[in-house]
Amino acid sequence: MNDTGIKSENSGNGDASRSDTWQPGRREIAAVAGPQPRVDLSLRSHRDEAEVHAINYALGQTGGNRKRAAKLLSISYRSLLYKIRQHNITPSVEHG
User: Fold this and answer.
1) What is the pLDDT of residues 38-82, one digit of tens each?
2) Which of 47, 18, 31 has its CA nearest to residue 10?
3) Given phi > 0 = left and psi -120 to 50 = alpha, else beta, which region is 64?
4) How far apart are CA 52 and CA 24, in angstroms?
5) How many Å from the N-terminal Cα to the C-terminal Cα in the chain?
6) Phi-psi label, residue 11: left if phi above 0, alpha if psi -120 to 50, beta otherwise
7) Burial class of 93 by CB neighbour count within 10 A (0 to 12, 13 to 18, 19+)
8) Does domain 42-86 match CATH 1.10.10?
9) pTM of the full structure
């Protein structure tokens, strides 16, 4: 305990195996251990998923107009075209 009566996080017996201590790799190890399918928890996969969602939403809001969608996303038209190709985004065809 320190002067304020609160036990600091670094005080104690130095046992790093406490359950409230951050341990790197814990989630990754649990994700690949056992017969469960591997889950991609990388930042890149989350970013890519968010980009696809944002692009599809913007295209839906603009009726498929890519120039207006790029403006809505605050990116250049060429960047939008690149990301559409990169993520293999195809226009949805709605019959009505």
Assistant:
1) 777 899 999 999 999 999 999 999 999 999 999 999 999 999 999
2) 18
3) left
4) 29
5) 70
6) beta
7) exposed
8) yes
9) 0.56
